[in-house]
Amino acid sequence: MGTGVARADNGGTIGHSTDRGADSPRLDEGLRERSVATIYDVAREAGVSPATVSRVFNGGRVTAERAATVRAAAAVLGFAPNRVARSLRMQRASVIGLIIPDIGNPFFTALARGVEDAAQETNLSVVLCNTDEDVGKEQRYLEVAAAEQMAGVIVAAASRHRTDLSALVDRGTPVVAVDRRPRGASVDAVMMDNRHGGEEATEHLLARGYRRVACIAGPEGASTSDERLAGYRAVLRDHLGDTGQPIEPPPEYVVHGDFRVDGGRAAMERLLALPEPPDAVFVANNLMTVGALAALREAGHEPPGTGLLSFGDVPWPELVTPSLSSVQLPSYELGFAAAQLLQERIAGTAKPLQTVVLRTSLQVRESTSGPAANRGG
Amino acid sequence: MGTGVARADNGGTIGHSTDRGADSPRLDEGLRERSVATIYDVAREAGVSPATVSRVFNGGRVTAERAATVRAAAAVLGFAPNRVARSLRMQRASVIGLIIPDIGNPFFTALARGVEDAAQETNLSVVLCNTDEDVGKEQRYLEVAAAEQMAGVIVAAASRHRTDLSALVDRGTPVVAVDRRPRGASVDAVMMDNRHGGEEATEHLLARGYRRVACIAGPEGASTSDERLAGYRAVLRDHLGDTGQPIEPPPEYVVHGDFRVDGGRAAMERLLALPEPPDAVFVANNLMTVGALAALREAGHEPPGTGLLSFGDVPWPELVTPSLSSVQLPSYELGFAAAQLLQERIAGTAKPLQTVVLRTSLQVRESTSGPAANRGG
DNA sequence: CCGTCGTTTGAAATCGATTTCGCGTGACAT
DNA sequence: ATGTCACGCGAAATCGATTTCAAACGACGG
């Protein structure tokens, strides 16, 4: 450690032997540039004070001429402001956190894209944290977000009851709940109209002529699932069957799954094993639909012989034949709206807390032609 | 520092009117706890110096008794160290960045899980950045990683030629390339044996009795694709057909796609339109397989009548019937290994640069029974 | 009893950017 | 000509944690 390594004590420069080629910037003794230039280096190079350099990069009032000098100096040194120092001083980082429970679910990745696109407008970077529906992991990420002084956080909570946003809310960090709102948390929220979606779905199946409509719901107690289920129940209750009597589905027609593929498969198997199996099923989320579809096929039933309507498009719908109608979720839009709302808060809006609700929409695909299509066989 | 609002000027506490209920912590005048406690607050509460508090939390030498006092004080105040200040002082954050080109591709999400699991061991948090294969976006994230002083970065580069890791390498930030190695970057890498995978795939198709084996490759110039293609070509060159002559596939049997669903569909359509269409296709990535499968179905060809072998499992294989054999990729393991390697570097290993290569493995699923299954028709 | 050594502790410097405060300058009105 | 005002700029404080340096302290051997 002769000439090269400054500060051999702290771990600042790791013993990372990058073999810079001959074309890398020379490290002259006289004009030795540090591995990363600071605002002080730029100030010295430009012959101004650090304060002025800061102002140049933050829209402070500086004469055009001097600003040009500073920019030139910065360019020469390859200066980029140290975001950590900046965050410390500002008490706020220029990063927003997005915490989602399942990075493998296209619903959340689409949502993430919406967040990213909206965030781009304010130069905020998005960092994504995947909790795997694990409340412990989620809690750690929430604490990291607080300790990193993130400018704001968008969270699709792993649990309605056990997710604890207080670390952030106490700091005054803006938080927007998306898709799921943790109970009792006083934060903005962007949700979708789950009940309406459940109604749409069930109505569609009835309109197509199915009569024994079952539902594979999510975990009991999950608000999103409960609302979808409520929509399903409401429609069936109001619907008069061919006899003019309300259709009252037997209680076995409602089966709870875990929002995952295997749960959907198991649920469908249970439905198929009933003495009088349903002729159509409303599945309360996309992944369970994958499982349900697999179970149906194994049993030799294919849509549309048995109707299947998914809340949320099946991942890679290209893979599914015949293509299924589904309740389209505004996943991208949820993310976009959440990020916009968050940025309003970050900018300092004092509006009262908001809850934005976006509508689902039914996407009908031709091949869902109703039970008749298979009745001959 | 008066009694009331200190620093009303800076934007530290945003005007965020969370309506705390009556059960929120009271803000007494005497025992007024700031929205977030610092090391100084803890020090005062415990009657020690800030240095001691720091030592307690970082394994410094402190008498057990005093340490207990400090911990108690910290607990009372709900103290959590400010990671930004810590990062500034340490010149390194306790966060590693993971930069991937397509968050919607299960290959990368599995990889991300591997990274997360490995990182858990050292208490490093993982932040995930999605570049959407956009070199500009990627560049911004790389700069953010440098400016945020992330402890290290794992990157699956969007482009082999245009991805520029110098911002990080110059700082001395450890970088590990995964899946794709940017040209000329002197960094560690964790790759998979693409060529071997291509060979395995092609051999399998030949062994199953297919004779006109085509290949849907990735973008020309992408090293991963080129290697897979090379494996395909090598096997065909060495293979002696029924006549004892080498099988030389016509040049039209190699079609380039863009690694996305639609590219796979288009490529397959082109193959099917040939005067003598192939009887089997090796598809160089999972998403293109989705498109290829869709095109096959539309044309009325289903595997195994036309053989289809994917490099990398199709997303949600449950959806695909009959299930396809495929080249299994060590996606999780790639991420895990990359994170381990990165952590070694962060810890300061001076080993020369490494490239770890993981093998693919062929997963044979029974239903890929060869062309015979369909020959009668 | 005193010098030496090792341990524990606190004061203060430090990381790099932002921002307040006050000074100097020039324009303008009186 | 002088007071007023706005503006540009630099010095210095600040954000919160880590770490060095030296002081204080206790134990122990001579």
How would you briefly describe this protein structure?
The structure is a homodimer of 377-residue chains. With 377 residues, chain A is of the alpha/beta class. Helices cover 38% and strands 14% of the residues of chain A.
End-to-end separation of chain A? 83 Å
In oligomeric terms, what are we looking at? homodimer
List SSEs of chain A in N-to-C order.
HHHHEHEHEHEEHEHEHEHEEHEE
Number of helices of chain A: 12
Structural account:
The structure is a homodimer of 377-residue chains. By secondary structure, chain A is of the alpha/beta class. Chain A is 38% helix and 14% strand. Chain A contains twelve helices and twelve strands. In chain A, the strands form two sheets. Chain A has a six-stranded parallel β-sheet, sandwiched between helices. In chain A, strands 7-6-8-9-10-12 form a six-stranded mixed β-sheet, sandwiched between helices. The radius of gyration of chain A is 28 Å and the shape is elongated. Chains A and B meet through helix 4, helix 5, strand 2, helix 6 and helix 7 of A and helix 4, helix 5, strand 2, helix 6 and helix 7 of B.
List the helices and strands and how they pair.
The structure is a homodimer of 377-residue chains.
Chain A: H1 39-46, H2 50-57, H3 64-77, H4 83-90, E1 95-100, H5 106-120, E2 125-130, H6 135-147, E3 152-155, H7 166-171, E4 175-178, E5 188-192, H8 194-207, E6 213-217, H9 223-238, E7 254-256, H10 261-272, E8 280-283, H11 286-298, E9 307-311, E10 326-328, H12 331-347, E11 355-358, E12 361-363
Parallel strand pairs in A: 1-2, 1-3, 3-4, 4-5, 5-11, 6-7, 6-8, 8-9, 9-10
Antiparallel strand pairs in A: 10-12
Helix pairs in contact in A: 1-2, 1-3, 5-12, 8-9, 10-11
Chain B binds a DNA duplex (30 and 30 nucleotides) through helix 2 and helix 4.
